[in-house]
Amino acid sequence: MTTLLYKAAGDIRGDDILPLNQLRVQYPDLYERELTKYTARPDTVQNRVYPLDCCWADVVFLSPVHPAPIFEAMHESGRIGPVVVDYWTLDAELLDPAITCILMKRHDPELRPQPPEDFIPYTPETVASLSVPSERALQRLRTLNATEPLYPWADIPHILHRGPIPVTAFRTSAGEPVTVR
Question: Using one digit for the tens of pLDDT, what is the confidence trace for 111-145?
Fold first, then answer.
């Protein structure tokens, strides 16, 4: 059975999904839009990704967890309305373990950046074992209060891939090849 990784569908230009630092050079307007995600914590983009010898802005982020249960839990909290999540999938076998790692995320606002021991080697088998969100992560999202930041992926493992990933490697949620507009 194929193990899938997930990425939010979005405004993509060119032939590759690019890390933030490459967006800055090739598509400054997309870079500025994506950088707004870090307004509350701008230092995050310089956090080290130890196993890949780079920083946060040098990697493409993927999730081993389907987005539906995450957004359903946030909806249960009353913080967001019903959401139809548009996402793309990627076969986990397509990523090179030499330039990919897994970050075991822990929602702890005081723990930034995360220490080197929170990064583990990438394998499709490990990804498969991480494909279900923890009850702790879902409970945190179900009980968000009105003033807490949403941070839907705060305690969901992250798949970090150094460098671009070809758009042709992705499929839509319907299983069709992703096309660039």
Answer: 678 889 999 999 999 999 999 999 999 999 999 99
Q: Which of 157-181 are b and which e, b meaning 16 or more Cβ less than 10 Å from the residue's Cβ?
A: bbbbbbbbbebebbbebeeeebeee
Task: Please report the beta strands in the chain, taking only residues with DSSP state E, as ranges in sequence order.
Answer: 4-8, 16-17, 48-49, 54-55, 59-62, 87-91, 100-103, 119-121, 158-162, 165-166, 170-172
35 within 8 A of 23, measured Cβ to Cβ: no
Instruction: Look at residue 10 in the predicted model and tell me its pLDDT.
Output: 84
CA-to-CA distance for 140 and 166, rounded, in angstroms?
34
DSSP 63: B
- Helices 67-77 and 135-142 meet at what angle, rounded to 10? 40
Token duo for residue 57? 């802005």
Question: Percentage of residues in the chain with pLDDT exceeding 90?
Answer: 77
Q: What pLDDT is attached to residue 74?
A: 93
